[in-house]
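Reopening this one. Same input as before:
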Amino acid sequence: MPVIRASEGAARVIVVERRGAVAIRDPRTPIVATARPTRVEAIQADTRSVEVAARGAQGPTGPAGRDGTSPEATYPVGEPIHGHRVVRLDSGKAYHPDTAVLEHAQACIGIALQSAITGEVAVRLAGTIEEASWTWCDGAVWCGADGALTQSPGDTGWLLCVGRALNATTLMIDFDSPIARI
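Same output, byte for byte:
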């Protein structure tokens, strides 16, 4: 966890730009600004010293966890679907979104794992997705025209950040709230 220490002359406004826990050590009450609405909890640090005299006994085995795979779902196609593009649902069928139609922004659910003309298409809903032909730079990945993934969102239509590039060939899917341009 990153720790921000403030000195006497430090500014009282602290901007947190990334997700995750941040500890702020400041004798005064700071003003915390986040990039989007976030629950901020003010807690008092426990400064007591604790000494562990001996290691405790092993506890009982816990329940098995998830298998570690990213969640996927399969949907019937409503139009030809291109692989590795954003998919939206309409009446239970998969379509690519149109960034000029605001209603499509709220209907986006994931990224198609393959192309499909008829039948069904597998859609990754969260987690990571890898593609050897990608050449991402570190940073946000957006929904572009016809659901294409891009790091340079267009100048018109709504905006939807669909995740972050972890490296050149891996995307961490994490859909943000869409932004409507006025």
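So the earlier flakiness isn't reproducible anymore. For the record, The first helix runs from residue 102 to 107.
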